[in-house]
Amino acid sequence: MRLGLVLSEAANGLRRNASMVVSVVLVTFISLTFVGAAILMQMQIGQMKNFWYDRAQVGIYMCTAISPGETCTGGEASQDQIDSVKAQLESATLSPFVDKYYFETHEQAFENFKKQFAGNPVADYVTPDQLNQTFWVNLKDPSQSDVLVESLSGVAGVENVADQRKYLDQIFSVLNAASYTAIGIAALMLVAAALLIATTIRLSAFSRRRELGIMRLVGASNRFIQTPFILEGVFAALLGSLLAGGAILALVQWFVQGFLGSRLTGFSLVGMQDALLVVPILLVVGAVLAAFSANFAITRYLKV
């Protein structure tokens, strides 16, 4: 098979169907941009889980004068009850699970509350004695937080024992839902791109039906006839894939690292090294999708 002749036929096909080729490029670009964004989002969720789960604390909230519950019938937690919780954290039973802990007083909780709700009118109606004194515990293995929860829940003077990972799970479930939505949209767009590529190839073959008839009469093999059409589809899809890769790189560089990075300084965000891993995936997906669709379309056409 002469490579020059095959490439020439593919170039002629692209020129004859320029408008359809542009449509394929745009649909491939949009669909693969969604695919790349979904992959990056999953990478970001993974990084955030690794970052925050290791820093998640267990909060042991001591009773206040207004706390409800059977363990707070005596009102404000006494110093003896606070010392009892501290002793349990340092006991032979719980200390193997505890990495470190610190105690937050009413005043410290109030200062943190004012910082968190600065400018919010609610801060004017809260007093220090309404906020819990709290033991904040970092565990050596955050997945073993149930040991601490079971040991200290129901202890006199303890209003509640809360694992921060449960709140993180709710946040990550929302992020996962958004990621899955992006994947679903990307899948639909990829189907549309595959159908558009197949239609483009069939129209290109139809416009050259006399040439194809002559080629078959002179004994040209199906492989020789099919290859230029497959190359047309692959070229258009690769161009769309390159545009999608450029969009992903720009998204990470200017939006994630630039805009978000300057505002979310305490977060671990995906970087260019992650984006550079995504780009080859987009190129492979685009090329394989186009080759499969084009091959299916031209094979069906030649059988008619």
TrEMBL record:
Which keywords does UniProt give here?
Answer: Cell cycle, Cell division, Cell membrane, Membrane, Transmembrane, Transmembrane helix
Q: What is its main location?
A: membrane
Q: Which gene encodes it?
A: ftsX
Organism equals Cryobacterium zhongshanensis
Q: Which residues form the FtsX extracellular domain?
A: 57-161
Cellular component GO terms, alphabetical? plasma membrane
Pfam families to which the protein is assigned, alphabetical: FtsX, FtsX_ECD
Membrane topology label: Multi-pass membrane protein
Assembly and binders: Forms a membrane-associated complex with FtsE.
Output the superkingdom of the source species. Answer: Bacteria
The record, for InterPro entries, names: ABC3_permease_C, FtsX, FtsX_actino, FtsX_ECD
Compartments, record wording: Cell membrane
Sequence ranges assigned to domain ABC3 transporter permease C-terminal in this UniProt record: 185-302
- Name a single GO biological process: cell division
Summarizing the function annotation, the protein's role is: Part of the ABC transporter FtsEX involved in cellular division.
Q: What is this protein called?
A: Cell division protein FtsX
Name the residues that span the membrane: 21-45, 177-201, 229-255, 275-298
**What family does the database annotate?**
Belongs to the ABC-4 integral membrane protein family. FtsX subfamily.
Record's NCBIfam families? FtsX_actino
